[in-house]
Input
Amino acid sequence: MSGPKLQATGLSFGYDPARPVVKDVSFHVDAGEVVFLLGHNGSGKTSLLACLSGAQRAGAGRVTIDGRDVHAMAPTERAQRIGMIPQLHVAVFGYDVLDVVLMGRAPHLATFSAPTREDRAIALESLDRVGLAGFHDRRYTQLSGGERQLVLVARGLTQRCDVLLMDEPDAHLDPRNQLRVLEVVETLAREHRLSFVVSSHAPNSALMFADRVLLLRRGRTLALGSVEETLTEALLSEAYAMPTEVVTKTVNGHRMPRAILPRRIDRVPEAIATMTLDPGALERPGSVLATLVQASRTQPQRILVTGSRGSGKSRWCERLVEMARRRDWRIAGVLSPPVMDGDRKVGIDLLDLASGERQRLADVRRGAGEGTTTERWRFEDATLAWGNDVLRRASQSLPQLLVVDELGPLELQRDVGLSAGIAAIDGVQQGLACVVVRPSLLDVALKRWPDAVVVDVED
Amino acid sequence: MPPLNGAGTGGRAASGRDHAEHAGVASARPWRDVLTIVALASPALLGVVALTLGFYQISVLDVARSLLSSVLPAAAAEVPEIARRLVLDVRLPRVLAAMLIGAGLAVTGAVFQGIFTNPLVDSGLLGVTAGAGFGAALAMLLGADGVMVQTAAFAFGLFAVTMAFLGSRLYRSAPTILLTLMGILIGSFFASLTSLLKYLADPLDTLPSITFWLLGGLTGIGWRSLPLLATLTVAGAVFFVLVRWRLNVLSLGDAEATALGMHPQRMKILLIVASTLVTAVAVAVGGVIGWVGLVIPHAARMLVGPDHLRLIPMSLALGASFLLTIDTVSRSLLPSEVPLGVLTGLVGVPLLIALLRRQGAGW
Output
């Protein structure tokens, strides 16, 4: 029989139905597959697992195993198909390891019966499979965290089900034990065709062990797909509302993600040569800027304006625009001046340099947002559409100065947002083209425009 | 520092220690097995011994002959009539009652500790003891005695737990926590009502009898009290023994038990109802006898570990032996009979402290 093993379709769930914590999530697990659930605290991972296990009934949508509705099954039957391996906990009673593993036989035994010799044999075999042969008469409470987690995996095996759900198996474990537990999971999936759904707070675990990843954000699917498709800087930054860096390694010509790190400081990489330019130098013949302007009459000259957050990238562009206006240049493109409330930045406007028209581009996010989002800002889709029109017209008007403020991860990594800005910079025939780019995206921008001059406004 | 060496040394040290612990557990088992068998057989042995003891000493042989006389009339001829009457009509019902009450309180303590995942509770948690105490006091204040007092105690014990249960249903979340909270509240409420009754009672006549009843004791127990006590306790014990392996699964908590295919709420309600019936009848017959339900399951765990497959039978056996021993000491060795509830506390608390010390880290 083909088809997915476990399938969730349009799943929504909330402890209070008015406030769903899982919203319209669909995904599946095939036999022998390991799917990781990643997402911020409260993103709905545990609730989703509870729905998949049948412990919680979904408000909408359904969960099927081999095509059969999980919620229509009797609890014992369900527990023969789907096992739940809970988060590592301290047990109150110090059962022997074998007793803990034997509890996996519960769905196979009648209420008034106790495990038989065969049940014991199955439990011992399960212990052997997770590498804990000989641990049967140890006390569960005296094992190390990694061993306890493996005992719970063995209990799941003893349950003899096809799908095992694991709630943060790598939590509270040192790196070696995380590896040990997840290697067992990998082996069981490969060699015994067991399916795993693993929730985790460790994207690096997913990088190493996931066949596919479901990224959740505020209960919704942010991304679903292979490791390469889902564990990208843009998606992870959005999923965790934190600038994230994916360190890659090139193997046989393929760039392979190797590690996921939080990005603490957004600073120009040392390998990239930058220069300091003052917009005022436009007035001074012989200055670098004046030389660039000279050259731009025959060949387009691209400038990447960079610097850390708040260093004055937009202000630098504004000053250049002022200088250009004095000289009556044809100016086109967009600036994104901040909207301040006191000394707090509460919004971003978008200013069409050709017409002077101004629209609100983004507001600081408050609460859950729909539509195109980054970690801090909620964008007006109408303004984005207008901005893209402005930028398309800008590249056709043969400006002497084209400004695009700014191209961020949305544009450069996901091709959304003000993506017409990329085409505008690509398409300039002559003149100066200034693009505001944050330091972390310089390598992406330089790959696109290798001959661009990088101006660091902080220098 | 070469990290591989560091990790290697750490690993070896850890596994060395693990092996030592492992060996310690394994070598402790043989003498435990012997002790387990002795413990399981103890109620029968102690029962015979208890029948011989009292102000009038009766030999083991005469006790055996007396017991046989009910089925073999020929045996009766060889025993003095007074010894036979003492064994059959006075001591035997009391010995049986002590064993049944001890077994009932101990096994329901073990059951409650399992389903509430809390080794520090007993079956009085939901208010059955406090309710029964109030029922008995009320009956005595109204001038009832004997069976009426027992009936009132039994009825109010059940009533208190029902109140706690219904109270917890008023709210929709975390049923176990709320049930515990409601039990404690209802128990305290009935304890206050009992104090009120004692305040109202005649200090020369009714107050001493209420106080004495509340301290627990089996003085004057006859065959009349036994049918209900035996029926409920034996039926409860059979039920607990049959479902005892499920208690392991229940002790993991509701979420895990559900994932393992159980209806934890349904099973818990059945177990609470059975435990409450057993406890209520024990309190109705023997009065408030504390500590048995708390101490005995711990002692049983020391012997056989926390696995309920072995823990439940062991709690039954040790509970029966413990209360029988206490009651026999009380009635035959002490100059005057000390209330059972007092003695179980005086013996149970130091015993629990010693057990906790032995137990160390885990239960």
Chain B touches chain A through 38 residues (CB under 8 Å). DSSP finds 16 helices and no strands in chain B.
